[in-house]
Amino acid sequence: MFKLTVFLLILNFQTSAFSSTKEKIISQIELINILSFNFTQTVGEKSEKGFCIIKYPKKIYCEYDGSNKKIVVSNGRSLVVKNNRNYYIYPLKKTPLELLLDKNYLISKIKNLELKIIDNKFITFKIFENNYEINIFFDKNTLILTGWQTVDVYQNLNITFISSPYINQKINDKIFILPKNK
Question: Is residue 76 within 8 Å of residue 57, measured between CB atoms?
Answer without folding.
Answer: yes
